[in-house]
Amino acid sequence: MKELITSLKGDKVIWAFVALMALFSFMPVFSASSNLAYMRHGSGNALTYLLKHGAQVLIGFYIIYKVHKIPYHYFKTISKIVLPIVWILLAYTLLKGTIIDGANASRWIQIPFIGITFQTSTLAAIVLFVFVARYLSKKRDTPITFQNSLWELWTPVFITIFFILPANLSTAALIFSMVIMLVFIGKYPLKYIAVILGAGIIGLLFFILVAKAFPDAFPNRVDTWIARIDNFTTDKPDEDDYQIEKAKIAIASGGVYGLGPGKSVQKNFLPQSSSDFIYAIIVEEYGLFGGFLVLSMYLLLLFRFVVAAHKANSLFGKLVVVGLGFPIIFQAMTNMAVAVELLPVTGQTLPLISSGGSSIWMTCIALGIILSVTKKDEEIAEEQAESKKRDEALQRMIDKQLKEDEEAEKESFSIEDKANPLEPILKRN
């Protein structure tokens, strides 16, 4: 175990927080999965789901370990190569999205021969953020023109969002807002950002009008997320209101200290209790204390991302940490805000805590890249420390040799003086 821990490179605090949240996730996932076990198998035995979650977490840590060993500057080229492949996957997902529990879930595709569902938009987000960081770091020392950036930067961004938007508005909005934040930090001209924001809003409104006018042209989830926004703003009763009401009952039932691990009542009524609404179950079982503890862990992880970005020795490294770290925290805040009805239902999971294979693994890829950045800084610091030690050792050897030479010289003078005691007097005369 000691050898394994010493082999982990990069920011140890980030490693610790990730491990802590992953370990904590077993308790709420095991408790909340009893509802799924009852509906699918007729019994409340959730051991299968616990073992499945454990396997997914172990695979996730293996992904982090392998990815953080890759030098982070390699991802510059990888993002440029993989982005067109991601567009193909997104288009295929939009057209051939799989059916999950009888519902059209056009955000996922099923991997052949394995049977695992995979949400392509999460991979697209990682690749796009690295691609944007690559562009901004490449243009650091050259003036950016709107015409060139429109083709080199914003065309890939809008193509990616175009493929995600019809099936998943919340993810598309999250990706677009994170890209805007990233270019702002990367000192992209503010006047160009304003133009892009305006174009994005106009494009979204146009898409909504087209979807309303031709509902058959977008048979996936357009009507769903439009209805969610309408119901959130008008308080119409629907399925989402049912979920929110059950989530609020769970939070209210928890009180300050909670009902206790595994004693949630609303998990039996709340759909997606182990994924989208797991925060409500956490508060019900562990109270406001547990809810604030989870919130604090994400805020502390955000602080560590800021520290890691500040320490990064290159602009690309700084932007990668911000572009991949901040969306994890923003997604967590969105999930918690939905549970308390500050936002409409979005379908965003709680990173590192909710159950789900591909969502956990994509988060682990992002964390692996971040740790690769911090690993490089750690290696540079170690090299500098070793170089300093070598210089100090060399200086000590030089000082020792000089001291020995001085002593030898004094000793030789002393011997000569003893051999001819009149020589100093003769020299003076």
Oligomer: single chain
According to DSSP, the number of beta strands is 4
How large is the count of helical segments?
15
Query: Looking at the structure, what is the overall shape?
Result: globular
Largest sheet: 2 strands, antiparallel
Tell me roughly what share of residues is in helical segments: over 70%
Q: In angstroms, what is the radius of gyration?
A: 30 Å
The low-confidence parts are: 99-104
Written as H for each helix and E for each strand, in order along the chain, the element string is HHHHHEEEEHHHHHHHHHH
Amino- and carboxy-terminal Cα gap: 80 Å
Percent strand: under 5%
Average pLDDT score: 82
Class by alpha and beta content: mainly alpha
Question: Which strand order spans the largest sheet, edge to edge or round the barrel?
Answer: 1-2
Pfam families: FTSW_RODA_SPOVE (PF01098)
Organism: Flavobacterium aureirubrum
Transmembrane segments: 13-34, 46-65, 77-95, 116-137, 157-185, 192-214, 286-307, 319-340, 352-373
Membrane topology: Multi-pass membrane protein
Features:
single chain, 429 residues, 74% helix, 2% strand, globular
Structure description:
- The protein is mainly alpha-helical.
- It has a domain at 77-357.
- It contains 15 helices and 4 strands.
- The strands form 2 sheets. The protein has a two-stranded antiparallel ribbon with strand order 1-2.
- Helix 6 runs parallel beside helix 8 (169-185) and helix 12 (278-311) packs antiparallel against helix 13.
- The protein is globular and about 105 Å long.
- Residues 99-104 have low confidence and may be disordered.
